[in-house]
Amino acid sequence: SVADTLMAKNVPYSKVEVPVYHYDPQKARELLDAAGWLTVPGSPVREKAGKPLALLFSYNVNNSAEKDIAELIQDDFK
User: Fold this and answer.
1) 28, 51, 59, 65: which could form a disulfide with 70 (CB 3.0–4.6 Å)?
2) What is the C-alpha separation between 41 and 8, in angstroms, rounded?
3) In terms of pTM, does the model score above 0.90?
4) Three-state SS letters, the chain
5) Contact at 8 Å (CB) between 6 and 13?
């Protein structure tokens, strides 16, 4: 099943209603274009006003599981 919440559905008191966003790369491209983040010709990089799009992901460096997860997310974003 898709992980669309912070906690498993069987965790007591974890029922938090959050919007579910489905994987849709085309919609993501449309939203980035609409926000002014345009692709650089011949490159996968997006820029706005001459600045490249960058994402900052923070995690607890003292937690090896979080480090592993952060590296997986980083790889997915590539």
Assistant:
1) 59
2) 42
3) no
4) CCCCCCCCCCCCCCCCCCCCCCCCHHHHHHHHHHCCCEECCCCCCEEECCEECCCCCCCCCCCHHHHHHHHHHHHHHC
5) no
Alpha-carbon distance of 38 to 44, in angstroms, equals: 10
In this structure, the chain runs to a length of: 78
Written as one letter, the residue type at 35 is: A
For residue 20, the model assigns a pLDDT of 82
Kindly state the average pLDDT of the residues 55-70.
Answer: 91
Strand partners, 51: 48
